[in-house]
Amino acid sequence: MEEILKEILNRLDNLSEGQAGMRSDISNIKSEQTELRSDLSGFRTEQADMRSDISSIISEQTELRSDLSGFRTEQADMRTDISNIKSEQTELRSDLSGLRTEQADMRKEVAFYYGSMMQKLDETKKELGSEIRHLANVQQQHQRTLELINAQK
Fold this sequence. Notes:
mainly alpha, 2 helices, 153 residues, single chain, rod-shaped, 97% helix
């Protein structure tokens, strides 16, 4: 009887350890999500810097209007820069989309692990209930035996 109780306690300890591990995994995922948000903030800052650069280029363009030949050269350079900035911005959007996909995948994994953990918990509850009923039956049988022995004396 003590062995069964010890086994039940061991199983409960194992469940607690598994739950702690899952909580740790969820915490790690949350911290990774925070890091991704920080990266996104960095991308936004870079995009603002790029917009600032474009604004500076436009200012230079107005200054260069006095010199027509210089203006044409600078204008061609600015168009190239703007094209590069748009290209980089497209890459940043693509990276952001990838980050969103990864985040969605992580959420699916967390949901799966949580569901698995809850299913395992339900199974353990059923097993524990069965074990307790069995112990109660054994205890009743022992009680009846003791009563029969005492009655025969």
